[in-house]
């Protein structure tokens, strides 16, 4: 009975702490469905005073382009995440083995690339002139297949696995690939799920690649398309306010310049909110790995 009473303050603390994350998201949803003029006049409220879906109508004014950007983003995000995990786990596994002869120089090379890069201009020349990836969906996938920090994280997790498992498999005649696929990977679901989600989020939120390398609208990523819509709204508003044309009256009362920002957040974050619960159990398991000693 005493233990239950002692847990009450802890539970209250975590409820309040959780509200710090839930309330801002509710506020974003509320602002996205609030009338533009009401939002500017009354500010942000958890319960909208006047509901309007003009922001969503403006974001979805070209549903074909929006759905195509969704499709492109989903395809390259999933494909890039899968290929990245294959590459990074296969790089991390030999680095986790004590008997790998080139362990130190390869690790140094990986860490060096994490600290130094060629820069934007050499990268652009490489991608366009030599690899011919401009206006190609593979430009979203190939350049960042390996992340140095993630490789180090995966390698550290592999090193924490019991060496006796690998040794017993070796005694039974298993080869390195068999040990890797049948023993190491199944035991590494927490780190693989965590790094996969981080990679997926990075790919999903990438708009800079489309800005630099993509010219065809059929290959626009979702984030870049939303940026284009936002810039278009801001440009129209700035032009109408700063340089009015004589004899032409432009009504900006229905132009959702503020609420559209929040609508874009919901449109962009929606799929990730659906995917996250599937990874949550692996995060919880990852927190307790190694906590129980035999």
Topology at a glance:
Layout lengths: L1 H31 L3 H7 L11 H6 L3 H34 L6 H13 L4 H11 L17 H12 L3 H9 L4 H12 L1 H16 L3 H6 L8 H21 L16 H30 L6
Helix pairs in contact: 1-13, 4-7, 4-10, 5-7, 8-9, 10-13, 12-13
Mean pLDDT across the residues is 81
Radius of gyration of CA atoms, rounded to a whole number: 25 Å
Per CATH, the superfamily of the largest domain is MetI-like
β-strand number: 0
Task: Please write the CATH class name of the largest domain.
Answer: Mainly Alpha
Oligomer: single chain
User: How much β-strand is present in the residues?
Assistant: under 5%
> Helix segment count?
13
Distance between the termini: 31 Å
Please give the domain count.
Answer: 2
Main location: membrane
Pfam families: BPD_transp_1
Membrane topology: Multi-pass membrane protein
Protein name: Putative aldouronate transport system permease protein
Overview of this structure, please?
By secondary structure, the protein is mainly alpha-helical. The protein has 2 domains: 24-59 and 222-294, no CATH class; 64-220, MetI-like fold (Orthogonal Bundle). Helices cover 71% and strands 0% of the residues. Helix 5 (103-115) runs antiparallel to helix 7 and helix 10 runs antiparallel to helix 13. The longest helix has 34 residues, at 63-96. The radius of gyration is 25 Å and the shape is flat.
